[in-house]
Amino acid sequence: MADEKMEMGEVGTSLMTTESKQTPIRPLNKFERLFQPCLGELVGTTFFVFIGCVSVIENVESAGRLQPALVHGLAVAIMVACMAEISGSHFNPPFTLAIFLCGGMEMNMVVPYLACQLVGGVLGAAMAKAMTSGENYAKAHGAAFDLLQSDSPIGGALFGEVAMTCLVTMVVLLGAVNAKTRSPLVPFMVGCTVIINVLAGGDVSGTCLNPARAFGPAIVSNYWTYHWVYWVGPIAGGLIAAALVRLLLGDHKIRLILK
Hints:
By secondary structure, the protein is an all-alpha fold. The protein has helices at about 30-55, 65-85, 95-100, 110-130, 135-140, 155-175, 185-200, 210-220, 230-250. Helix 3 crosses helix 6 (about 155-175) and helix 6 runs antiparallel to helix 7.
């Protein structure tokens, strides 16, 4: 992520930058500081959710979890790399909250980012509905998370969403925000983490890790069964990751204790 002296420090945190990048010659104008980052979050989340939903709706049965795992992971990696210097490439409410709590973005951008991510999720889900066949769409409930059908697996699914979101959020924070561990490979790192999470936990919770990814299909398909799991789990996981980095794993500047 860009450090505080760089362009993205004013509006969000970039998931792909290098220490050698030069400071812009001119100051950012209002559009570049406020509106363009929000548009980047809206467009990036829209296409991530669109591609992710299509991969689930049109999933080839023989591919199992591999198809959605690869599609979601590669989509994250590509969108992060493309949008990093525009918005910081969050595309996920828990990422935005964790990045803010670790000092990676200004407070006035948090709510606009969250709103753009949720709207992008709805737009992406609507695009997936327009593209796919009605039969496959109905069968998959529009790629809403329909795996949970009774109370018995709720505990494991909720724990899985917390733990897996914590893992991917720590990759974001340590790979992009924390100066000591910052890496230009963070798009690849985040994408790979999404892939292994989906492969590992897809049959337990569906591996959402992103309320915007859950909210869009739920709105478009009107499927809300156990939808709360995909808000509570990812947000809790993101907050735990932020606490770990803020209190224990962060560098001297980020860490609040044991300095």
